[in-house]
């Protein structure tokens, strides 16, 4: 086996990409990138009734949004069925697997009898050591021979050593009577053939691992390093479900979280590097290791997610923010921005991105530059523009027409008008904000004036004082 680290993400295309699956993909990606290895993608589409092209496309789109790239084209598990059957027959030829002719009725009868006698209901096939000469001409499954004594130890990089008594393992079916492989066989064959060295997946798969190791041992293949990561729980400590809010990755894009913030938050969800909460992609790749993964389930915290995302928006490149807002609007099924609006938004970004935690918040703050005049005033703005303040703004407007349009001079002019009416600057800022933005939430009035420019600022004031 090559010394290069190879990880894989293997989703089933039977629905949306769950937030837990997205984190598993991210952990595999980070570990491979940290170790200078490869991360591969396998679509586990053997469930033909439930697997859909639409689900596969949604998974690919979600991974792309999250910013994860893979080192090969996606591999279809279903298309590899002949190879899986080949391995089952090879185990048969080696004598480490056998043909079992027991019917479902016979298996059920065995279990019912065992239960009545208070014995283990683990099925022990009478065909395990049968003479091939006694085999009937009838349908059969291929079962791998599990050891009858001793223990199987899973050396897990997260959970530590997990020991399972071999008398608790059944002779697992690898090939069904119709010649199709079981999932448990397919996973092992695919991981081996893909050269996977590290299987990083949710700890709900831990019980499968001892059974999958039967195939590795039967084929005398190297067993990969397993790392079973705890699941994500809701804020109440219970398994994450739709009642907790968004569980599909695409929902987070549609809610307006930036991909970089999502990567940061998901990386920190169940993994730690000291007390670091906010970090860059480069730092995540540099720091990520399996030893930092905790054993306890992580809890989804939307407040913490928003705070992390806000910090990322604040340091993002302006052009990148505008590009991601396009993706957000599309995901949220909202009208896209025009080129002119994108230019205006980019110009205003310096006074928008420091306090926005999501793209909807940023767009709300940017409404002053995105909306066309005459502005529709919200209720608070209408109240702020009473006749007295309209009169003061009418007095202010001609003074702005001749200003040099620097922050210092604009502040001085507005301060002067406020003092002339024996009021503080804050009192005059409220009606000024109403006239410039049409709403009470916006950047500072001076940032808006500088962004809008002289002509647009004066025109908006004149709309309200005419």
UniProtKB/TrEMBL annotation:
GO MF annotation terms: glutamate-tRNA ligase activity
Annotated Aminoacyl-tRNA synthetase class I anticodon-binding domain residues: 335-463
Motif stretch ('HIGH' region): 11-21
Limits of the Glutamyl/glutaminyl-tRNA synthetase class Ib catalytic domain: 4-305
Annotated InterPro entries: aa-tRNA-synth_I_cd-bd, aa-tRNA-synth_I_codon-bd_sub2, aa-tRNA-synth_I_CS, aa_tRNA-synth_I_cd-bd_sf, Glu-tRNA-ligase_bac/mito, Glu/Gln-tRNA-synth, Glu/Gln-tRNA-synth_Ib_cat-dom, GluQ/Sye
Superkingdom, natural source: Bacteria
Enzyme Commission code(s) on record: 6.1.1.17
Keyword annotations: Aminoacyl-tRNA synthetase, ATP-binding, Cytoplasm, Ligase, Nucleotide-binding, Protein biosynthesis
Keyword set includes Cytoplasm: yes
Reactions this protein catalyses: tRNA(Glu) + L-glutamate + ATP = L-glutamyl-tRNA(Glu) + AMP + diphosphate
Family, per entry: Belongs to the class-I aminoacyl-tRNA synthetase family. Glutamate--tRNA ligase type 1 subfamily.
Role noted for this protein: Catalyzes the attachment of glutamate to tRNA(Glu) in a two-step reaction: glutamate is first activated by ATP to form Glu-AMP and then transferred to the acceptor end of tRNA(Glu).
Protein name, entry field: Glutamate--tRNA ligase
Source organism: Thioclava litoralis
């Amino acid at each position: 086996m090559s010394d290069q680290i190879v990880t894989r993400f293997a989703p089933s295309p039977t629905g949306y990409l769950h937030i837990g699956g997205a984190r598993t993909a991210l952990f595999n990606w980070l570990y491979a990138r940290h170790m200078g290895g490869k991360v591969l993608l396998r679509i586990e589409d053997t469930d033909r009734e439930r697997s859909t092209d639409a689900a596969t496309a949604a998974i690919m789109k979600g991974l792309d949004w999250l910013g994860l790239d893979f080192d090969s084209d996606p591999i279809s598990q279903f298309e590899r069925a002949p190879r899986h059957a080949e391995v089952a027959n090879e185990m048969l030829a080696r004598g480490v697997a056998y043909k079992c002719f027991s019917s479902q009725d016979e298996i059920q009868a065995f279990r019912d009898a065992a239960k009545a006698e208070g014995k283990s209901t683990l099925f022990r096939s009478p065909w395990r050591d049968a003479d091939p000469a006694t085999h009937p001409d009838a349908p059969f499954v291929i079962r791998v021979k599990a050891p009858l004594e001793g223990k199987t130890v899973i050396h897990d990089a997260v959970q530590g050593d997990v020991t399972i008594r071999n008398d608790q393992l059944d002779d697992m079916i690898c090939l069904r009577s119709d010649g199709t492989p079981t999932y448990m066989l397919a996973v092992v064959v695919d991981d081996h053939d893909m050269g996977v060295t590290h299987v990083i997946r949710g700890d709900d798969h831990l019980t499968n691992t001892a059974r999958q190791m039967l195939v590795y041992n039967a084929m005398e293949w190297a067993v990969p390093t397993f790392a079973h990561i705890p699941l994500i729980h809701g804020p109440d400590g219970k398994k994450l479900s739709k009642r907790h809010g968004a569980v599909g990755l695409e929902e987070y894009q549609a809610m307006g979280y930036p991909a970089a913030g999502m990567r940061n938050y998901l990386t920190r969800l169940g993994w730690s590097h000291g007390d670091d909460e906010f970090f860059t992609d480069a730092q995540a790749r540099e720091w990520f290791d399996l030893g930092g993964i905790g054993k306890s389930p992580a809890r989804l915290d939307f407040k913490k997610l928003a705070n992390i995302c806000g910090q990322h928006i604040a340091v993002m490149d302006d052009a990148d923010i505008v590009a991601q807002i396009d993706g957000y609007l599309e995901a949220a099924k909202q009208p896209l921005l025009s080129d002119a609006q994108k230019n205006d938004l980019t110009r205003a970004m310096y006074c928008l991105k420091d306090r926005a935690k999501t793209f909807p918040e940023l767009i709300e703050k940017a409404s002053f530059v995105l909306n066309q005049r005459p502005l529709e005033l919200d209720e608070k703005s209408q109240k702020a523009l009473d006749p007295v303040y309209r009169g003061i703004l009418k007095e202010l407007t001609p003074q702005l027409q001749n200003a040099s349009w620097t922050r210092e001079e604009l502040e001085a002019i507005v301060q002067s008008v406020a003092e002339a009416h024996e009021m503080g600057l804050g009192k005059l800022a409220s009606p000024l904000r109403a006239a410039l933005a049409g709403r009470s939430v916006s950047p500072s009035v001076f940032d808006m004036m500088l962004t809008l420019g002289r002509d647009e600022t004066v025109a908006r004031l004149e709309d309200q004082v005419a």
